[in-house]
Design a protein that fits this description.
about 30% strand, globular, twelve-stranded antiparallel beta sheet
């Protein structure tokens, strides 16, 4: 599976001077089942997310900053400012992973040189575009990258997935239509940080026991927003095939919420978040809204760090 750590490290080879790239559903396969987007530009501009970052344990933050600085010294780039937009998309189950579309401006020659020196490096041509491969020592699996076009790099742990994505971009295979519900994932705004849209969830969640409830859903839409400087908000909508199924999903969510609240003594942070959630039912649609004020976020972080500190002693 394509891991976030692999994506982040590879993205560090992107060079500075970013521009806002147009991102649309027409760049994804018509067979796409799920889409996860992360707006780095919006996140970096958010005062609230900056505040949350500053609340992280000083020692851990220092360690993370040291790692970023070390890679920056090697590649000459800044992870926090050199990526504009990230899209993860898949045509099958989440366990099988998918392809990452990394939008930004980059030094193609520098990145190619770095990859050429990696273990088990290979390069094959696909319709005039080189698909680079190398061994990722983090999970001992082969990874693949292609410079799809100016401002876009494709990443995956499956070579054929990269080739399929190139075929869609080249017009050789059909793309996702603008009328698809998944296209809503690409609606950018200063507040939208993360979006997750999926359809046909039974084929996506696989055999994961914790996601059994989602097998009954036709579609899912999640948006996480930084509402100014005062709150972090999330809106989840789950669409079922029948009203009866939707009611079952709602009851399952209410049950999870109740259990989380009952465990407040042993997991106060989770209980505090669960207490803010509102679960509603409207026909075939189940909605979950969550608004976390800045004060609660700070309190939750402090509580977690305090408990973690005690556990480490």
């Amino acid at each position: 599976m394509l891991k976030p750590t692999f994506i982040a490290v590879t993205c560090l080879a992107l060079a500075p001077t970013l521009s806002s790239h147009a991102v649309g559903s027409d760049e994804l396969s018509a067979n796409t089942k799920w889409v996860l987007t992360a707006d780095f530009k919006a996140a970096n501009a958010s005062p609230l997310l900056k505040f949350i970052t500053e609340q992280i344990n000083a020692e851990k933050r220092k360690q993370a900053e040291a790692k970023v600085a070390a890679i920056q010294a090697m590649f000459g780039v800044d992870l926090l400012n050199d990526i504009d937009y990230l899209v993860l998309a898949g045509t099958g189950s989440a366990e099988k992973g998918g392809v990452a579309y990394v939008y930004g401006s980059y030094d193609r020659q520098r990145l190619s040189t770095i990859l050429a020196g990696a273990d088990n490096y290979s390069s094959v041509q696909h319709e005039g575009t080189a698909v680079h491969g190398w061994l990722d020592k983090n999970d001992n699996r082969q990874k693949y990258l292609a410079f799809a076009k100016s401002g876009l790099v494709l990443l995956s742990d499956q070579q054929q997935v990269v080739k399929d994505a190139l075929d869609v971009l080249g017009g050789r295979k059909p793309c996702l239509t603008s009328g698809s519900p998944l296209s809503q994932a690409f609606q950018r705004s200063p507040e939208n940080i993360i979006s997750l849209y999926a359809s046909g969830l039974s084929s996506i969640v696989g055999e994961e026991p914790k996601a059994a409830m989602l097998k009954q859903a036709q579609g899912l839409a999640l948006r996480i927003r930084a509402s100014g400087e005062d709150a972090l908000s999330a809106d989840l909508a789950v669409t079922a095939d029948t009203a009866e199924t939707a009611q079952q999903v709602q009851q399952a969510l209410l049950g999870i919420q109740a259990l989380t609240l009952l465990r407040a003594a042993e997991a106060p942070e989770s209980a505090a978040l669960a207490g803010q959630a509102k679960i509603t039912l409207d026909g075939k649609a189940v909605g979950v809204t969550l608004s976390l004020p800045k004060s609660l976020i700070e309190k939750t972080i402090r509580s977690y760090q305090s408990r973690e500190s005690v556990a480490e002693q």
